[in-house]
Design goal:
This protein is an alpha/beta fold. It has a domain at about 1-180 and about 235-260 and about 300-315: NAD(P)-binding Rossmann-like Domain (Rossmann fold, 3-Layer(aba) Sandwich), CATH 3.40.50.720. It is about 40% helix and about 20% strand. The chain contains 11 helices and 14 strands. The chain has helices spanning about 10-20, 40-50, 60-70, 85-90, 95-115, 145-165, 200-205, 235-250, 270-280, 305-310, 315-335, and strands at about 1-5, 25-30, 55, 75-80, 120-125, 170-175, 180, 215, 230, 230-235, 255-260, 265, 285-290, 295-300. The strands form 4 sheets. It has a 7-stranded parallel β-sheet with strand order 3-2-1-4-5-6-11, sandwiched between helices. A 3-stranded mixed β-sheet has the order 12-9-14. Helix 7 runs parallel beside helix 9 (about 270-280) and helix 7 crosses helix 11. The structure holds nicotinamide-adenine-dinucleotide and uridine-5'-diphosphate (UDP). The site of nicotinamide-adenine-dinucleotide (NAD) has 26 residues, from helix 1, helix 5 and strand 5.
Length: about 325
């Protein structure tokens, strides 16, 4: 099948493109490379043994995006491109709405022009805000607490309305929980520029000696050890969930939201210990104040994914940490 992948050179997109190519799909990556290294396509090709096609394009550039989609004529689109840092979104909301919301509108219009009716969108558990219940089911109220989360909720709404007006549309809004790890080949992974916002890349940099200590944001939450609990999911499991969602769009018209998580939570301290075990390196830490906006526990109810996608995560915490460490070690060698 011909599949266009916006943001296909990024962290989650690149892992998904590998899985698509390995399954024999023809892939077009549409990416501005705003947050991706120029050699990612070569690395994808080295892993998968097939090359994706690449068009360097900004998703907010309607003429260029429309031309690229019309030329490739995809049967489906996986939409990863966007901005994702919560702190940046709070300080620069207009840019987040421009890229995420306007970019998505431009994409849907370009899909319409190219008569492409199947879509899988990268949404986020952040659309739930502070949850009333955990694990969180998809019908939990949506009340994001920051502009990044609002942008995801708005895009989901636009896709839902698009589906109502066009019954032939088949779309899946995948709500990711906490993607971590890297491809086992250590050829692709997450390479945050500047100080990492997320726990796992920060822990990896401390283990690698690139940062002296981890700050743990609070140990007085209502959780077993007082530190925040999250549903971490291996990025390759997440990539494979996209292929399952793509399959669902072939048979299920309409728009649906599906959580992508494991349903199993780990605390910050458990993550630190697991990473120390996988890397053989110490991860010194300080307990500091809570981070504003953080919730105690966020866990997916993964039942709908199992029922509708016939997909469950298979990689455990050790695999997440070992693969993240292999990738971090590669980055360390590359930059030394
Ligand atoms: P990423 O930054 O690694 O990937 C995004 C890709 O989109 C990059 O390759 C970047 O160059 C590209 N891009 C950015 N702006 C663009 C634009 N205007 N036009 C074209 N390309 C553009 O991020 P990621 O972690 O791979 O996330 C992918 C998607 O998943 C995002 O939509 C993100 O919001 C969502 N998501 C990520 C997480 C997470 O923890 N990583 C969690 C939930 C949801
Ligand atoms: N966290 C932490 N120190 C860090 C980064 C994160 O203690 O430097 C904690 C954070 O408070 C949360 C968990 O790690 O409990 C996961 O945070 P992350 O930012 O990775 O994901 P999110 O908060 O978006 O779920």
């Amino acid at each position: 099948m011909r599949v266009a992948v916006t943001g296909g050179a990024g962290y989650i997109g690149s892992h998904t493109v590998v899985e698509l190519l390995e399954e024999g799909h023809e892939v077009l990556i549409l990416d501005s490379f705003a947050n991706a290294a120029p050699d990612v396509p070569d690395r994808i090709t080295a892993i998968a043994g097939h090359a994706p096609r690449i068009v360097r394009v900004d998703i907010t550039d309607a003429p260029a995006l429309t031309a690229a989609l019309q030329e490739f004529a995809p049967e489906a689109v996986l939409h990863f491109a966007g901005l994702k840092a919560v702190g940046e979104a709070v300080s620069n909301p207009l840019e987040y709405y421009r890229v995420n919301v306007t970019g998505s509108l431009v994409l849907l219009q370009a899909m319409q022009a190219a008569k492409c009716r199947r879509l899988v969108f990268s949404s986020s558990a952040t659309v739930y805000g502070d949850p009333d219940q955990v694990p969180i089911p998809e019908d939990h109220p949506l009340r994001p607490t920051n502009p990044y989360g609002h942008s995801k909720r708005m895009i989901e709404q636009v896709i839902e309305d698009w589906g109502v007006a066009n019954p032939e549309i088949a779309a899946v809004n995948l709500r990711y929980f906490n993607p971590v790890g890297a491809h086992a080949s250590a050829q692709i992974g997450e390479a945050p520029s500047g100080t990492p916002n997320n726990l796992m890349p920060y822990v990896a940099q401390v283990a690698a000696g690139q940062r002296p200590r981890l700050s743990i944001f609070g140990d007085d939450y209502d959780t077993p050890d007082g530190t925040g609990v999250r549903d971490y999911i291996h990025v390759v499991d997440l990539a494979q969930a996209h292929l399952a969602a793509l399959g669902l769009t072939a048979t299920a018209p309409g728009v649906q939201a599906i959580n992508v998580g494991t349903g199993r939570g780990y605390s910050v301290l458990e993550m630190v210990r697991a990473f120390e075990g996988a890397s053989g390196k110490p991860v010194p830490f300080d307990i500091v104040a809570r981070r504003p906006g953080d919730v105690a526990t966020s866990l997916a109810n993964p039942r709908r994914a199992a029922d509708r996608l016939n997909w469950t995560a298979s990689r455990d915490l050790d695999a997440m940490c070992e693969d993240a460490w292999r990738w971090q070690s590669y980055l360390l060698r590359k930059n030394s």
